[in-house]
Amino acid sequence: MSNIKDLIIIDGHSDYPIQLLRARRTGNKKVIETDHLPGLKKGGVCFETVTVGGDFLLGPYEMRDPFNTLRAIDAVHQEVTESPDILQLVLKKSDLDEVGRPGTHSLMMALEGAAPITEDFSLLRNYYRLGVRALSLTHNLRNIFAEGCGEASSRTGLSLLGKDLIREINRYDLILDLVHINERGFFEALELCENPVLVSHSNARKLCNVFRNLTDEQLKAVAERGGVVGINCAGFMIDEVFENQTVQRLLDHVDYMIDLIGIDHVGYGPDYGDYIMDYIDEWLNRSSMAGVRVQYAIGAQEISATQVFVAGLMERGYTETDIRKIMGRNFLRVYREGLPD
Ligand SMILES: [Zn+2]
After folding, report:
1. What Å distances lie between residue 140 and 204, 232, 287, CA to CA?
2. What domains appear along the chain, each with residue ranges and CATH number?
C-alpha cells in the first residue's frame, strides 16, 4: 500500500454487476463482499461507479433489455442490503462524505449506453428513481440516440431522439459520460448538455491511435467544462503493440493528458474485466473489435494491482496532492457537482 495516508481511490468505471448477475443466478449472496472486495481492498479502491445496463450483450445477458438492467440494479441493491455495514450506495451529495470510511465500499450506478431507455423516457426516470446517477449515450456501435465511436460514419452524431434525451437528462441530477460516442456526437452532446460531464474510461489517441481513445480536442473540451477523463487499463487502448501495453506506457498517457489539460482533469477508470474474460472474447467478436487481443496493463492486470499504478505516479514525481486528485478527488469533484442534494 502506498504511504499516502487515507488515499481515496475511485474506480470510475467497473462492469462488475455483470459478474453479480452470473453469480447470483446460481444462488450466491454477498458476492461483492466475498469475491470482489478482497481485490479492491488490496488495491486500496474504496469507490466504484458500476455499470448496471447498457448497449452490450455479455454471455446470456442482453443488457439492452430493460428487464436485465432492472435485474442488475436489483442485484446491486440486494448486495447492499446483504452487506449493510460495508456497502454504501451513492445517491446524493452527502453520501460522498462517507467515501473512504474504513471498512466501507461505495458504489454508484451508471448505464453504459442508453439503449435500455428505449424510446420511452419514463424508463430513464425510473432508473433514476432506483439510483442510477450517470450514463453514456452509446457503446461502440450506434443506437437510436447516437453514433458509437466504433462506427465508420462520422457524418452523423446525435439523432433527434438523442437530442431529446439530453434535454431530458438536463432535467435530472444525472452525470453525462461521453465515453464510447463518436466525435461528432461527442461535441453535439457537450453543447446541449447542461449537466456535469466526464469521460469515465478512455486514453489519449495521440499516444495510441485507436477509435476508443480521445483526440486532443476532445480532451481539452472535457477539461474546459470542468470534467474528468478516467485512464483505462485495457491494453489495446494503451499501445498499438501488444508487448508495449505496460503500466509505464499507461503512465505516459497520464503525463500526456496532464500536460495538455491539467492535473484537475485526469482520473482513474481502469475498466478491468479480468473476471469475465470468457464473455469479453465472445463479445469482441460480435462488436466492432473482432480480432483484438485483450489484456490489461502489463504489470497491473487486475484491480488488486492498483497500487502499482500509484507507485508509478510517485516514481514520476507526482506530489501527494497530485496523486490524491488523479486517484479520486477529481472524480469526487464532478460527482459532487452532479449528484442531487
Ligand atoms: Zn466501456
Report:
1. 17, 15, 7
2. 9-338 (3.20.20.140)
Ligand 1 mean position, distance from CA 110 (Å): 11
Distance (Å) from CA 93 to ligand 1 centroid: 25
Spacing, Cα 270 to ligand 1 middle (Å): 10
Q: What is the pLDDT of residues 136-169, one digit of tens each?
A: 999 999 999 999 999 877 789 999 999 999 999 9
pLDDT-based confidence at 294, cuts 50/70/90? confident
Confidence of residue 274 (pLDDT cuts 50, 70, 90): confident
In whole angstroms, give the CA distance from residue 122 to residue 19.
27
Q: How far is the CA of 109 from the centre of ligand 1 (A)?
A: 14
CA–centroid distance, residue 341 to ligand 1 (Å): 28
Whole-number Å distance, alpha carbon 201 to ligand 1 midpoint, is 7
| SS3 (DSSP) at 230 | strand
Residue 181 Cα to ligand 1 midpoint, Å, equals: 10
Residue type, 282: E
How remote is the CA of residue 202 from the centroid of ligand 1, in Å? 8
Residue whose C-alpha is closest to residue 47's, from 200, 213, 176: 200
- The pTM of this model reads 0.96
